[in-house]
Amino acid sequence: MRRCFELAKQGEGNVAPNPMVGAVLVFNDLIIGEGYHSEFGKEHAEVNCINNVSNEHLHLINQSTLYVSLEPCSHFGKTPPCTNSIIEKKIPKVVIGCQDSFLQVDGRGIETLRTAGIEVVCPILEEDALDLNKRFFTFHAKHRPYIILKWAQTANEMIAQNNYSRLLISHEITNRQVHKWRSEEASVLVGTTTALLDNPSLTNRLWPGKTPIRLVIDSNLKIQATSYLLDGSVQTIVFNSIKQEQVGATLYFKLSGNKSWVSQISEALYQMNIQSLLVEGGANLLQSFIDENYWDEARVITNTVMEVSEGLKAPILKNAEKYYSEAIEKDLIQYYRRIMAS
Ligand SMILES: NC(=O)c1ccc[n+]([C@@H]2O[C@H](COP(=O)([O-])OP(=O)(O)OC[C@H]3O[C@@H](n4cnc5c(N)ncnc54)[C@H](OP(=O)(O)O)[C@@H]3O)[C@@H](O)[C@H]2O)c1
Ligand SMILES: [Zn+2]
Protein backbone atom coordinates (compact mmCIF):
# COMPACT_ATOMS: atom_id res chain seq x y z
CA MET A 1 0.00 0.00 0.00
CA ARG A 2 2.89 2.37 0.72
CA ARG A 3 4.17 1.70 -2.79
CA CYS A 4 0.68 2.63 -4.06
CA PHE A 5 0.98 5.99 -2.25
CA GLU A 6 4.41 6.58 -3.78
CA LEU A 7 3.06 5.87 -7.25
CA ALA A 8 -0.03 8.03 -6.66
CA LYS A 9 2.16 11.04 -5.84
CA GLN A 10 3.67 10.90 -9.33
CA GLY A 11 0.39 12.41 -10.48
CA GLU A 12 0.59 15.38 -8.09
CA GLY A 13 -0.37 18.63 -9.78
CA ASN A 14 -1.64 16.92 -12.96
CA VAL A 15 -4.74 14.97 -11.95
CA ALA A 16 -6.87 17.51 -10.06
CA PRO A 17 -9.83 17.71 -9.75
CA ASN A 18 -9.43 13.91 -9.75
CA PRO A 19 -7.75 12.25 -6.76
CA MET A 20 -4.19 10.90 -6.91
CA VAL A 21 -4.30 7.10 -7.09
CA GLY A 22 -1.65 4.37 -7.27
CA ALA A 23 -2.05 0.61 -7.81
CA VAL A 24 0.15 -2.47 -7.56
CA LEU A 25 -0.59 -6.03 -8.70
CA VAL A 26 1.12 -8.75 -6.67
CA PHE A 27 1.49 -12.49 -7.33
CA ASN A 28 2.87 -14.15 -4.20
CA ASP A 29 5.67 -11.71 -3.34
CA LEU A 30 6.29 -10.59 -6.89
CA ILE A 31 5.05 -7.25 -8.20
CA ILE A 32 3.85 -7.99 -11.73
CA GLY A 33 2.24 -4.60 -12.45
CA GLU A 34 2.28 -1.00 -11.26
CA GLY A 35 0.33 2.04 -12.32
CA TYR A 36 -0.95 5.45 -11.31
CA HIS A 37 -3.38 8.08 -12.50
CA SER A 38 -1.06 10.45 -14.36
CA GLU A 39 -3.29 13.06 -15.92
CA PHE A 40 -6.88 14.28 -15.61
CA GLY A 41 -9.05 12.54 -18.23
CA LYS A 42 -6.56 9.72 -18.83
CA GLU A 43 -6.71 6.09 -17.63
CA HIS A 44 -7.07 5.40 -13.92
CA ALA A 45 -4.36 3.74 -11.83
CA GLU A 46 -5.95 0.26 -11.83
CA VAL A 47 -6.16 0.13 -15.64
CA ASN A 48 -2.59 1.39 -16.07
CA CYS A 49 -1.44 -1.20 -13.55
CA ILE A 50 -3.12 -4.08 -15.39
CA ASN A 51 -1.88 -2.83 -18.80
CA ASN A 52 1.62 -2.68 -17.38
CA VAL A 53 1.85 -6.43 -16.76
CA SER A 54 4.40 -8.01 -19.12
CA ASN A 55 3.42 -10.83 -21.51
CA GLU A 56 5.26 -13.45 -19.45
CA HIS A 57 3.13 -12.63 -16.40
CA LEU A 58 -0.29 -12.23 -18.06
CA HIS A 59 -1.35 -15.73 -16.99
CA LEU A 60 -0.78 -14.79 -13.31
CA ILE A 61 -3.28 -11.89 -13.24
CA ASN A 62 -6.21 -14.13 -12.28
CA GLN A 63 -4.27 -15.40 -9.24
CA SER A 64 -2.95 -12.01 -8.05
CA THR A 65 -3.94 -9.39 -5.48
CA LEU A 66 -4.56 -5.82 -6.59
CA TYR A 67 -3.55 -3.13 -4.08
CA VAL A 68 -5.04 0.28 -4.77
CA SER A 69 -4.83 3.44 -2.64
CA LEU A 70 -8.47 4.46 -3.25
CA GLU A 71 -11.72 2.58 -3.83
CA PRO A 72 -12.02 1.73 -7.57
CA CYS A 73 -14.68 3.65 -9.47
CA SER A 74 -17.83 1.94 -10.67
CA HIS A 75 -19.30 4.67 -12.88
CA PHE A 76 -18.69 5.93 -16.40
CA GLY A 77 -16.79 9.21 -16.22
CA LYS A 78 -14.10 10.25 -18.69
CA THR A 79 -13.10 6.56 -18.73
CA PRO A 80 -15.09 3.30 -18.20
CA PRO A 81 -15.43 1.96 -14.62
CA CYS A 82 -12.30 0.35 -13.18
CA THR A 83 -14.42 -2.30 -11.46
CA ASN A 84 -15.24 -3.63 -14.98
CA SER A 85 -11.57 -4.19 -15.79
CA ILE A 86 -10.91 -5.86 -12.43
CA ILE A 87 -13.86 -8.21 -12.89
CA GLU A 88 -13.02 -8.97 -16.56
CA LYS A 89 -9.44 -9.86 -15.63
CA LYS A 90 -10.76 -12.20 -12.90
CA ILE A 91 -8.57 -10.66 -10.18
CA PRO A 92 -9.61 -12.61 -7.05
CA LYS A 93 -8.62 -10.14 -4.30
CA VAL A 94 -8.49 -6.34 -3.98
CA VAL A 95 -6.93 -4.44 -1.05
CA ILE A 96 -8.00 -0.79 -0.77
CA GLY A 97 -6.48 2.15 1.18
CA CYS A 98 -9.72 4.01 1.81
CA GLN A 99 -13.26 4.38 0.56
CA ASP A 100 -13.99 7.12 -2.01
CA SER A 101 -16.52 9.56 -0.54
CA PHE A 102 -17.15 11.12 -3.97
CA LEU A 103 -20.91 10.93 -4.48
CA GLN A 104 -20.72 8.78 -7.61
CA VAL A 105 -18.54 6.13 -5.93
CA ASP A 106 -19.09 6.17 -2.13
CA GLY A 107 -18.93 2.43 -1.45
CA ARG A 108 -20.45 1.35 -4.77
CA GLY A 109 -17.07 0.27 -6.14
CA ILE A 110 -16.51 -2.08 -3.20
CA GLU A 111 -20.06 -3.36 -3.43
CA THR A 112 -19.71 -4.10 -7.17
CA LEU A 113 -16.50 -6.06 -6.59
CA ARG A 114 -17.97 -8.08 -3.70
CA THR A 115 -21.11 -8.85 -5.70
CA ALA A 116 -18.82 -10.25 -8.41
CA GLY A 117 -17.34 -12.61 -5.82
CA ILE A 118 -14.07 -10.72 -5.33
CA GLU A 119 -12.55 -10.63 -1.83
CA VAL A 120 -12.17 -6.99 -0.75
CA VAL A 121 -10.08 -5.73 2.19
CA CYS A 122 -10.68 -2.07 3.13
CA PRO A 123 -9.39 0.15 4.72
CA ILE A 124 -5.62 -0.37 4.99
CA LEU A 125 -3.42 2.57 6.20
CA GLU A 126 -6.58 4.66 5.99
CA GLU A 127 -5.19 7.79 7.67
CA ASP A 128 -2.35 8.01 5.12
CA ALA A 129 -4.72 7.23 2.26
CA LEU A 130 -7.04 10.05 3.33
CA ASP A 131 -4.12 12.44 3.83
CA LEU A 132 -2.82 11.72 0.33
CA ASN A 133 -6.03 13.16 -1.13
CA LYS A 134 -6.85 15.70 1.60
CA ARG A 135 -7.71 18.33 -1.04
CA PHE A 136 -10.13 16.05 -2.87
CA PHE A 137 -11.83 14.78 0.31
CA THR A 138 -12.14 18.23 1.91
CA PHE A 139 -13.56 19.65 -1.31
CA HIS A 140 -16.30 17.01 -1.55
CA ALA A 141 -17.10 16.84 2.16
CA LYS A 142 -17.13 20.59 2.92
CA HIS A 143 -18.09 21.97 -0.48
CA ARG A 144 -15.15 24.33 -0.41
CA PRO A 145 -11.48 24.14 -1.46
CA TYR A 146 -8.76 22.81 0.83
CA ILE A 147 -7.30 26.01 2.28
CA ILE A 148 -3.64 26.56 3.17
CA LEU A 149 -2.57 29.82 4.83
CA LYS A 150 1.00 30.98 4.33
CA TRP A 151 3.01 33.92 5.55
CA ALA A 152 6.56 34.98 6.40
CA GLN A 153 7.31 36.82 9.63
CA THR A 154 10.30 38.34 11.39
CA ALA A 155 11.61 36.91 14.66
CA ASN A 156 9.36 39.40 16.48
CA GLU A 157 6.33 38.36 14.43
CA MET A 158 5.97 41.22 11.95
CA ILE A 159 4.99 40.59 8.33
CA ALA A 160 5.76 44.11 7.04
CA GLN A 161 7.33 47.36 8.15
CA ASN A 162 5.28 50.29 9.31
CA ASN A 163 6.11 52.37 6.27
CA TYR A 164 4.87 49.47 4.09
CA SER A 165 8.14 49.30 2.15
CA ARG A 166 8.45 45.73 0.93
CA LEU A 167 10.24 43.55 3.43
CA LEU A 168 12.03 40.48 2.04
CA ILE A 169 11.80 38.14 5.00
CA SER A 170 12.44 34.62 3.75
CA HIS A 171 15.67 33.16 2.37
CA GLU A 172 15.97 32.55 -1.38
CA ILE A 173 15.93 28.78 -0.85
CA THR A 174 12.75 29.10 1.21
CA ASN A 175 11.30 31.06 -1.72
CA ARG A 176 11.82 28.01 -3.90
CA GLN A 177 9.85 26.02 -1.38
CA VAL A 178 7.05 28.58 -1.60
CA HIS A 179 7.02 28.28 -5.40
CA LYS A 180 6.81 24.50 -5.00
CA TRP A 181 3.77 25.05 -2.76
CA ARG A 182 2.23 27.21 -5.51
CA SER A 183 2.81 24.44 -8.06
CA GLU A 184 0.89 22.02 -5.82
CA GLU A 185 -2.31 24.08 -5.43
CA ALA A 186 -5.11 24.98 -7.82
CA SER A 187 -5.27 28.65 -6.82
CA VAL A 188 -3.46 31.36 -4.87
CA LEU A 189 -5.04 34.46 -3.29
CA VAL A 190 -3.86 37.88 -2.02
CA GLY A 191 -5.64 40.87 -0.49
CA THR A 192 -6.06 44.32 -2.02
CA THR A 193 -3.35 46.10 -0.04
CA THR A 194 -0.78 43.44 -0.86
CA ALA A 195 -1.67 43.66 -4.56
CA LEU A 196 -1.41 47.46 -4.47
CA LEU A 197 1.81 47.76 -2.47
CA ASP A 198 3.83 44.72 -3.49
CA ASN A 199 2.64 44.21 -7.09
CA PRO A 200 3.20 40.43 -6.77
CA SER A 201 3.13 38.20 -9.88
CA LEU A 202 2.10 35.10 -7.85
CA THR A 203 3.49 32.84 -10.57
CA ASN A 204 5.60 29.75 -10.06
CA ARG A 205 9.01 30.60 -11.48
CA LEU A 206 11.38 28.77 -9.14
CA TRP A 207 10.02 25.23 -9.31
CA PRO A 208 9.07 22.85 -12.16
CA GLY A 209 5.33 22.52 -12.69
CA LYS A 210 2.31 24.67 -13.13
CA THR A 211 1.31 28.13 -11.94
CA PRO A 212 -2.00 28.14 -10.05
CA ILE A 213 -4.97 30.30 -10.97
CA ARG A 214 -4.32 33.72 -9.42
CA LEU A 215 -7.00 35.27 -7.24
CA VAL A 216 -7.17 38.78 -5.81
CA ILE A 217 -9.72 40.73 -3.81
CA ASP A 218 -10.25 44.17 -5.32
CA SER A 219 -13.71 45.33 -4.31
CA ASN A 220 -13.54 48.76 -5.94
CA LEU A 221 -11.19 47.87 -8.81
CA LYS A 222 -8.32 49.96 -7.54
CA ILE A 223 -5.50 47.75 -8.80
CA GLN A 224 -3.56 49.42 -11.63
CA ALA A 225 -4.05 47.94 -15.12
CA THR A 226 -0.25 47.72 -15.40
CA SER A 227 0.13 45.44 -12.37
CA TYR A 228 1.50 41.91 -12.88
CA LEU A 229 -1.74 40.36 -11.68
CA LEU A 230 -3.59 41.90 -14.63
CA ASP A 231 -0.97 41.11 -17.29
CA GLY A 232 -3.07 38.29 -18.77
CA SER A 233 -0.18 35.81 -18.57
CA VAL A 234 -2.10 33.44 -16.30
CA GLN A 235 -5.78 32.80 -15.61
CA THR A 236 -6.71 35.33 -12.92
CA ILE A 237 -9.91 36.05 -11.00
CA VAL A 238 -10.56 39.50 -9.54
CA PHE A 239 -13.24 39.33 -6.83
CA ASN A 240 -14.98 42.69 -6.79
CA SER A 241 -18.30 44.40 -6.09
CA ILE A 242 -18.60 46.23 -9.43
CA LYS A 243 -18.67 43.99 -12.48
CA GLN A 244 -18.90 40.45 -13.86
CA GLU A 245 -16.84 40.25 -17.01
CA GLN A 246 -14.20 38.12 -18.74
CA VAL A 247 -11.36 40.16 -20.23
CA GLY A 248 -8.78 37.87 -21.85
CA ALA A 249 -7.38 35.62 -19.12
CA THR A 250 -8.87 37.82 -16.40
CA LEU A 251 -12.29 37.09 -14.94
CA TYR A 252 -13.87 39.92 -12.97
CA PHE A 253 -16.12 38.06 -10.53
CA LYS A 254 -18.78 40.15 -8.85
CA LEU A 255 -19.66 39.33 -5.25
CA SER A 256 -22.77 40.66 -3.57
CA GLY A 257 -25.11 39.72 -0.75
CA ASN A 258 -24.72 39.62 2.98
CA LYS A 259 -22.45 36.65 3.41
CA SER A 260 -18.77 37.28 4.18
CA TRP A 261 -16.41 37.50 1.24
CA VAL A 262 -14.37 34.60 2.62
CA SER A 263 -17.41 32.33 2.41
CA GLN A 264 -18.50 33.73 -0.96
CA ILE A 265 -15.03 33.21 -2.46
CA SER A 266 -14.93 29.65 -1.08
CA GLU A 267 -18.36 28.99 -2.58
CA ALA A 268 -17.35 30.48 -5.95
CA LEU A 269 -14.21 28.31 -6.05
CA TYR A 270 -16.31 25.25 -5.23
CA GLN A 271 -18.66 26.06 -8.12
CA MET A 272 -15.66 26.47 -10.43
CA ASN A 273 -14.26 23.08 -9.34
CA ILE A 274 -11.11 24.71 -7.90
CA GLN A 275 -10.07 22.19 -5.25
CA SER A 276 -7.38 23.99 -3.29
CA LEU A 277 -6.37 27.49 -2.27
CA LEU A 278 -3.09 28.95 -0.98
CA VAL A 279 -3.73 32.25 0.83
CA GLU A 280 -0.54 34.34 0.72
CA GLY A 281 -1.53 37.45 2.68
CA GLY A 282 -1.58 40.10 3.86
CA ALA A 283 -2.35 39.99 7.54
CA ASN A 284 -5.87 41.31 7.18
CA LEU A 285 -6.95 38.72 4.64
CA LEU A 286 -5.28 35.83 6.49
CA GLN A 287 -6.89 36.87 9.76
CA SER A 288 -10.35 36.85 8.20
CA PHE A 289 -9.86 33.24 7.03
CA ILE A 290 -8.70 32.32 10.56
CA ASP A 291 -11.55 34.15 12.31
CA GLU A 292 -14.14 32.49 10.09
CA ASN A 293 -12.57 29.02 10.53
CA TYR A 294 -11.98 28.72 6.79
CA TRP A 295 -8.62 27.00 6.79
CA ASP A 296 -7.10 23.55 6.99
CA GLU A 297 -3.35 24.13 7.18
CA ALA A 298 -1.01 27.03 7.95
CA ARG A 299 2.64 27.29 6.99
CA VAL A 300 4.48 30.00 8.89
CA ILE A 301 7.98 31.00 7.86
CA THR A 302 9.95 32.76 10.60
CA ASN A 303 13.23 34.50 9.85
CA THR A 304 14.87 33.79 13.20
CA VAL A 305 17.44 36.59 12.98
CA MET A 306 15.49 39.51 11.46
CA GLU A 307 13.66 42.02 13.67
CA VAL A 308 11.88 45.25 12.79
CA SER A 309 11.12 47.70 15.54
CA GLU A 310 7.67 48.69 14.29
CA GLY A 311 5.55 46.95 11.74
CA LEU A 312 2.43 45.08 10.77
CA LYS A 313 1.71 42.25 13.21
CA ALA A 314 1.46 38.71 11.84
CA PRO A 315 -1.93 36.97 11.95
CA ILE A 316 -2.84 35.03 15.08
CA LEU A 317 -3.85 31.40 14.59
CA LYS A 318 -6.71 29.91 16.59
CA ASN A 319 -7.55 26.23 17.15
CA ALA A 320 -4.18 25.34 15.69
CA GLU A 321 -1.96 22.35 16.32
CA LYS A 322 1.66 22.28 15.16
CA TYR A 323 2.50 18.98 13.49
CA TYR A 324 5.85 19.58 11.81
CA SER A 325 8.70 22.05 11.53
CA GLU A 326 11.82 22.36 9.40
CA ALA A 327 14.74 24.75 9.07
CA ILE A 328 16.02 26.28 5.85
CA GLU A 329 19.12 28.40 6.49
CA LYS A 330 17.99 31.01 9.08
CA ASP A 331 14.30 30.33 8.41
CA LEU A 332 12.12 28.14 10.56
CA ILE A 333 9.03 26.77 8.80
CA GLN A 334 6.26 25.65 11.13
CA TYR A 335 3.31 23.62 9.86
CA TYR A 336 -0.02 23.77 11.65
CA ARG A 337 -3.36 22.16 11.07
CA ARG A 338 -6.71 23.32 12.30
CA ILE A 339 -8.24 21.36 15.14
CA MET A 340 -11.69 20.64 13.84
CA ALA A 341 -14.54 22.29 15.65
CA SER A 342 -16.72 22.03 12.56
N1 LIG B 1 5.26 38.63 5.05
C1 LIG B 1 4.32 38.11 4.34
O1 LIG B 1 4.15 36.90 4.27
C2 LIG B 1 3.37 39.00 3.60
C3 LIG B 1 2.48 38.45 2.68
C4 LIG B 1 1.61 39.30 2.03
C5 LIG B 1 1.64 40.64 2.30
N2 LIG B 1 2.54 41.15 3.17
C6 LIG B 1 2.55 42.56 3.51
O2 LIG B 1 1.34 42.86 4.14
C7 LIG B 1 0.97 44.21 3.88
C8 LIG B 1 -0.50 44.22 3.50
O3 LIG B 1 -1.24 43.53 4.45
P1 LIG B 1 -2.63 44.07 4.95
O4 LIG B 1 -3.08 43.22 6.05
O5 LIG B 1 -2.46 45.53 5.20
O6 LIG B 1 -3.55 43.95 3.66
P2 LIG B 1 -4.19 42.74 2.79
O7 LIG B 1 -4.69 41.68 3.67
O8 LIG B 1 -3.29 42.40 1.68
O9 LIG B 1 -5.39 43.53 2.12
C9 LIG B 1 -6.39 44.07 2.96
C10 LIG B 1 -7.51 44.56 2.10
O10 LIG B 1 -7.99 43.49 1.27
C11 LIG B 1 -9.42 43.47 1.34
N3 LIG B 1 -9.81 42.33 2.17
C12 LIG B 1 -9.03 41.57 2.97
N4 LIG B 1 -9.74 40.63 3.59
C13 LIG B 1 -11.01 40.82 3.19
C14 LIG B 1 -12.22 40.16 3.49
N5 LIG B 1 -12.25 39.13 4.33
N6 LIG B 1 -13.35 40.59 2.92
C15 LIG B 1 -13.31 41.62 2.05
N7 LIG B 1 -12.19 42.29 1.74
C16 LIG B 1 -11.06 41.89 2.30
C17 LIG B 1 -9.83 44.76 1.99
O11 LIG B 1 -9.86 45.74 0.96
P3 LIG B 1 -10.88 47.01 0.99
O12 LIG B 1 -10.47 47.77 2.20
O13 LIG B 1 -10.60 47.69 -0.30
O14 LIG B 1 -12.24 46.44 1.08
C18 LIG B 1 -8.69 45.03 2.92
O15 LIG B 1 -8.55 46.38 3.28
C19 LIG B 1 1.89 44.69 2.81
O16 LIG B 1 2.84 45.56 3.38
C20 LIG B 1 2.58 43.45 2.32
O17 LIG B 1 3.91 43.70 1.94
C21 LIG B 1 3.40 40.35 3.84
ZN1 LIG C 1 -11.41 4.28 -11.97
Write a structural description.
The structure is a single chain. This protein folds into 2 domains: 2-137, Cytidine Deaminase, domain 2, CATH 3.40.140.10; 143-338, Dihydrofolate Reductase, subunit A. The mean pLDDT is 96. It has 10 helices and 17 strands. The longest helix is centred in the middle third of the chain and has 13 residues, at 172-184. Helix content is 25%, strand content 27%. The protein is of the alpha/beta class. A 10-stranded mixed β-sheet has the order 11-12-10-9-8-13-6-14-17-16, with helices on both faces. The protein has a 5-stranded mixed β-sheet with strand order 2-1-3-4-5, with helices on both faces. It has helices spanning 2-9, 45-51, 82-88, 108-115, 126-132, 134-142, 172-184, 192-198, 261-271, 283-291; strands at residues 22-27, 30-36, 65-70, 93-98, 119-121, 146-153, 158-161, 187-190, 213-217, 236-240, 245-247, 250-254, 276-279, 297-303, 311-313, 320-328, 331-338. Bound molecules: NADP nicotinamide-adenine-dinucleotide phosphate and zinc ion.
